[in-house]
């Protein structure tokens, strides 16, 4: 076997390896990108539902607007559908209920309960935390003093890519108009 | 033996492959950059919306705070900016003018800057040098990466 043939094989092999590596990289990036996009879609969907409810806290309610608060749960009253029917709404992040619909061991079920009817929100939620502020912007645990609610949310993809779950975070401070009336 | 022409062809092939590889790597980096930008902008947008939401609770102008005073002319309206109030005790919409806030989030530190302007009623994209019944709040939120997201909210007196 002459030298030119050996060098051709070497260079050809090297190029082939680079090509394979590039291809693998492309597939991984594509899967990662897709997974990230799904995590973002999940968080966007959850954020939409939370925003819909939080902005309406106390709407159409004459008596106590917020009934209970904690770091991972809130119960309030609101005429959600603007039909003079005040409903009791609870958001609760239950870290004892793992989401079995996904491979991710860290995501749990976030519950939205309207008038006692549970509406589980899966969507790969791994963290859900609420912080309550009074009118002077100090943290409070007094339900009658709550003026703003900060919601922190983290969602992860349901399936791993290369052993990693794609993570996306969102946080927003709500200032419900009806808590100020 | 490899002659000179083969060697030149080989170098050319490697060069072309290297260029392809660089372009491809660039695409991957841009894709990751886009993912990060989307994440940062998403949080920035929520922060900007927070301030706009908060401002909606305030009176249109200092002259409307606490009691009803009919405004018969735009000259009755106050000048933009805080009237000695300090956040979070702002009591009217334009108190947020030149307000700056720094928020630490999971995605880094964001700096929000607010400006409030009177707007031309005949063209609400045009800032007015005179007082009008329309005020626009512009909230600009800059991430640590230097990206800025802006949200504007126009409020009218009536």
Care to describe what's here?
The complex is a heterodimer of chains A (181) and B (158). With 181 residues, chain A is an alpha+beta fold. Chain A has one domain (38-179). In chain A, 29% of the residues lie in helices and 34% in strands. Chain A is built from 1 helix and 8 strands. Chain A starts with a helix and ends in a 7-residue tail after the last strand. Chain B is of the alpha+beta class. Chain B has one domain (4-156). Chain B contains 1 helix and 5 strands; from the N terminus they run αβββββ. In chain B, strands 1, 2, 3, 4 and 5 form a 5-stranded antiparallel β-sheet that branches. In chain B, strand 2 and strand 3 (123-127) form a beta hairpin. The longest helix of chain B has 52 residues, at 4-55. Chain B is elongated and about 95 Å long. Chain B starts with a helix and ends with a strand. The mean pLDDT of chain B is 88. The interface between A and B is medium-sized, with 30 and 31 residues.
SSE order and pairing:
The complex is a heterodimer of chains A (181) and B (158).
Chain A: H1 3-54, E1 66-70, E2 73-78, E3 87-98, E4 108-114, E5 117-121, E6 125-133, E7 148-156, E8 167-174
Antiparallel strand pairs in A: 1-2, 2-3, 3-4, 4-5, 6-7, 7-8
Chain B: H1 4-55, E1 100-105, E2 108-120, E3 123-127, E4 134-142, E5 148-156
Antiparallel strand pairs in B: 1-2, 2-3, 2-4, 4-5
Uncertain runs of chain B with pLDDT below 50, 5 residues or more? none
Number of domains of chain B: 1
The tally of helices of chain A reads: 1
Provide the succession of SSEs of chain B: HEEEEE
Gross morphology of chain A = elongated
How many whole angstroms does the radius of gyration of chain B measure?
26 Å
- Helix proportion of chain B: 25-40%
Class derived from helix and strand content of chain B: alpha+beta
Give the strand content of chain B: 25-35%
Secondary-structure element string of chain A: HEEEEEEEE
Query: In percent, how helical is the residue content of chain A?
Result: 25-40%
Q: Kindly state the number of beta strands of chain A.
A: 8
**Mean pLDDT value of chain A:** 89
Alpha-carbon distance between the two ends of chain A: 91 Å
* Strands in their spatial order, largest beta sheet of chain A: 1-2-3-4-5
Helix segment tally of chain B: 1
- Could you tell me the mean pLDDT of chain B? 88
